[in-house]
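Our preliminary data section would be incomplete without showing what the modeling component actually yields. Below, a chain of 423 amino acids is followed by its predicted structure, encoded as tokens that our downstream tools consume directly.
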Amino acid sequence: MTRLLIESTEQLIHYFQQGEKKPDSLLIGTEHEQLLFFKDTKTRVPYDGERGIRSILEAFVAQGWKPILEKNQPIALLSPDATHTISLEPGGQFELSGAPLPNLHDSYDELTSYLQQLDLILTTKSIDRLGVGFDPISKRQDVPWMPKQRYKIMRDYMPTKGNHGLDMMTRTCTIQVNLDYVSEQDFVHKMRVAMGLQPILSALFATSSVVEGKDSGYKSYRNFIWLDTDPDRCGLLPFVFDENMGYARYVEYLLDIPMYYINYQGQMLVSGQPFRDFLDKKLAVLPGKSPTRADWVHHISMTFPEVRLKRYLELRSADCGDDSMILALSALWVGILYDAENLKMGHDYIRTLPFSTIHQVYSAVPKQGLATLLQDEPIGHLARQWVEKSKEGLCRRRYLNAKGQDETIYLEPLFAILEKEGY
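Predicted structure:
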């Protein structure tokens, strides 16, 4: 990462402007996390040991993946073609960050290849993987922590901000889709639609009702956890719906978020001050020092709103589910946000809703799921409408696989859920 010094907010705004893509070059990135359990004990897999997570990483290395080390220990992997990565969440959740790809069929091929490789390795170690939004078995104190220094810092910090930050770190799993934008206006419209429809998506993908072996009373306990994790850096962002929304407004939001730490000459310096102080050369741990672009990129990654801007948009609202649900999320959002007609329709619709209404639904969805009311209508009906609209958008994209099927095939699990729930 370049050591370019950051000395003005204009440089920070320009960073996001550089993410703009041409309309015919929009890509799709899919990420997901999985819980790993020993088959015999039904306990989470620790880092060390003959069947530990380190041994799984080393098995990938033996097949050509390149290790990323911290203190001489592998804590992530880069694929042989350097297009996608495997990383570890704090409790050993195994995460694939897929390559940016032009269509969902390519994403399917990437995902299938990875899961086949992972399953072969896990079988030799008698380990099961589980795609679900929240660990249905383990207590928080029984989950092993991964040996990453930043997780130690976050582990100490999280309880000072909310009651469930450590649960978020160790017991949750998500699916995420990363999508491009072509201009500042396009970014704003996509972020508004994604943020506004987030509660509907959360309800549709809810898979985390069981906690420590019992019904929690929630449809998505994972989304409940996020409601009480860290109000400084999580949740819905009300300013996204304001008229002055743009790169500059998002930068202002980021400047006021406290930093966990700063990487400086190989050391992680705990801060707690907002990035704005760093920009003004007023950090207690680095007095007189200016941030670098690497510091800015890292700070962005340490914020967790439901829709996050990097040099693309990360849509982060879904519980993980079974293998078919991973691409269902990407398909749903691609059909809405990459289709001009649906994006306009979605933006027009969201602009009719007060933020207070969106937030009220957002807060109710973890417990009520698709039965949550929005303007006296269960959002299950709205979910059906948007899945149908997404299907139309994917049809218009006309990407076919070798069997002549278009991308709508990846929406089938969502129609099945809606049918089962009576929507």
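The mean pLDDT is 97. The chain has one domain: 9-257+303-420. Preliminary results of this kind motivate Aim 1 of the renewal.
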